[in-house]
Design goal:
The structure is a single chain. This protein is 75% helix and 0% strand. It has helices at 4-41, 45-50, 63-72, 75-106, 112-120, 131-140, 147-151, 159-170, 174-182, 187-198, 200-215, 219-224, 232-242, 247-281. The two termini are 44 Å apart.
Length: 282
């Protein structure tokens, strides 16, 4: 008869194996569409029509990528515009979010908590509800079909970013802040020399979230600029409508749009894991 310890260990091993099996299945379900997209992008239109959609390219070809990047579709221009919107938005939004979060976390002023929770309550408003008023304001300002119209509504701090940073800043020991004040440091110096360096993991996570949200933004760029100032999502949608029967072109455009996000994730993956671990411990 097996001992209780051996039975317990066997049950634990089976439970662990079941968890890993479930994670593998979930990962496969998540990754397979991207694999299918990449495989299709490296096929020629003739091979895609004659072969099984799940078969490997035979031969591998860059024909679809060359067609997309050769000028038939303004994907290169769309990538540059998207990079510009991401850089401008991320710099302004993260900077203003850091300043606002520090004020809510460390400064004392009348109505601080009430203002913070009022600001945070705007997260409950669906983004689609704001499309019409934002469009009217931006159009009245003469920014329709311009690069400025794409970025102006998103330059200031976002409620989610302020909330995330405020909670993290509040976890920094007060003794460290007091020691800097004794040495004569002001708020800006404390923020730049102490708070921001100690918050690298959470800032990296916020940076990635902001980059992904701006890179994948479709509704607002489509409404305010359309094909006049196209971003990568709008250009990819135009490829799909233009080459509706040629899925190799569509998948090539989709693969090109995915590459920068994968690069950003690979660069910041360690900081993201650290931020999740620190948040979990807190």
């Amino acid at each position: 008869m097996p001992s209780p310890d051996r039975t317990r260990n066997r049950r634990g091993a089976l439970a662990t194996a079941g968890i890993y099996l479930g994670l593998i299945i979930a990962a496969a379900i998540t990754v397979l569409p991207f694999v299918f997209s990449i495989i299709t992008a490296f096929k020629s239109p003739q091979n895609f029509a004659n072969q099984s959609p799940l078969s490997l390219p035979d031969p591998w070809t860059f024909e679809s990528f060359q067609a997309i990047l050769s000028g038939r579709v303004e994907l290169g221009r769309a990538i540059l515009i998207t990079l510009g919107t991401v850089v401008v938005t991320v710099l302004c939004q993260v900077t203003s979010s850091v300043l606002a979060a520090y004020a809510f976390a460390r400064l004392q002023f009348p109505g601080r908590d009430a203002i913070f929770w009022l600001f945070l309550s705007t997260m409950m408003i669906p983004g689609t509800v704001l499309i019409v008023p934002l469009y009217l304001m931006v159009a009245e300002a003469g920014l329709k079909d311009t690069f400025a119209g794409l970025v102006v509504p998103f330059l200031l701090a976002s409620p989610y970013a302020v909330f995330l940073l405020r909670e993290y800043f509040r976890g920094i020991p007060q003794d460290v802040i007091d020691a800097a004040r004794i040495d004569g440091a002001g708020h800006l110096r404390i923020l730049a020399r102490i708070v921001v360096p100690l918050s690298t993991p959470i800032l990296a996570t916020l940076l990635l979230i902001t980059v992904v949200s701006q890179w994948n933004s479709f509704m607002w760029p489509r409404v305010i600029a359309g094909n006049e100032v196209p971003v990568i999502t709008v250009a990819t949608a135009s490829v799909q409508s233009q080459y509706v029967s040629n899925w190799t072109y569509v998948m090539a455009a989709t693969t090109i749009a995915l590459v920068p996000l994968i690069v950003v994730f690979v660069i910041f993956q360690k900081q993201i894991v650290r931020s999740i671990a620190i948040t979990g411990i807190k």
